[in-house]
User: Which sequence fits this backbone?
């Protein structure tokens, strides 16, 4: 699956690279570089708008189809967001993007947990928003993942960032309809559509910058520190 996606990504990239080569011959390098840098964010924004248009089309269809389209949209947006963060340089980056998409999809399971039922109708008729839809979760879980996993297990180094992208992109998309919920403080009003799209596009840029600055420190895990605290 990952190999197939990686090959598809290479084919799609080659379609994108060819027009960019033409562009680089027509315009000065600073303009071409700016276009190349902005392109992935524009692609992410257009994915959001495209998926929302599909969701509007199925709005009056069966509730199962609506839930499927809605959940797939959450997964795809998180998947593309992580592709933008990692710039897909290795097979691991692609697997992480798939995990990011999966986490964004799994968040909606809390509707069923809160309803204590596997029936979609009951899961959709909750009086309050379920716990994984509180953005406060990010401020609690991300530091825990950073301290307990990312610093000690090298292949889980990206997990806190990946989790943040999955959860925040999901909440922003839901936030367009219901606002952002910061338990125990309360909820914001529904986000205007342009705010939701701008924030989803800005999220990978923000996370990429934070990830880069934190990795610069290259923290040595306490368990691997061998230097004695005191020379006796
Ligand atoms: Zn949701």
Assistant:
């Amino acid at each position: 699956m990952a190999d197939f996606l990686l090959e598809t990504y290479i084919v799609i990239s080659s379609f994108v690279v060819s027009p960019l080569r033409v562009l680089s011959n027509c315009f000065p390098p600073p303009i071409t570089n700016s276009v190349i840098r902005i392109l992935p964010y524009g692609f992410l924004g257009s994915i959001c708008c495209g998926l929302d248009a599909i969701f509007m089309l199925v709005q009056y269809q069966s509730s199962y189809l609506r839930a499927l389209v809605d959940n797939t949209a959450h997964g795809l947006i998180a998947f593309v967001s992580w592709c933008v963060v990692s710039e897909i340089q290795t097979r691991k980056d692609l697997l992480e993007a798939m995990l990011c998409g999966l986490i964004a999809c799994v968040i909606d399971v809390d509707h069923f947990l809160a309803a204590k039922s596997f029936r979609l109708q009951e899961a959709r008729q909750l009086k309050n928003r379920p716990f994984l839809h509180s953005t406060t979760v990010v401020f609690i879980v991300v530091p825990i993942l950073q301290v307990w996993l990312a610093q000690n297990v090298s292949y889980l180094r990206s997990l806190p960032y990946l989790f943040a992208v999955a959860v925040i992109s999901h909440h922003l998309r839901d936030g367009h309809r219901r606002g952002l919920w910061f338990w125990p403080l309360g909820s914001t009003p529904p986000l205007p559509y342009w705010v939701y799209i701008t924030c989803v596009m800005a999220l990978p840029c923000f996370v990429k910058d934070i990830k880069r600055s934190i990795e610069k420190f290259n923290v040595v895990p306490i368990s691997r520190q061998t230097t004695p605290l005191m020379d006796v």
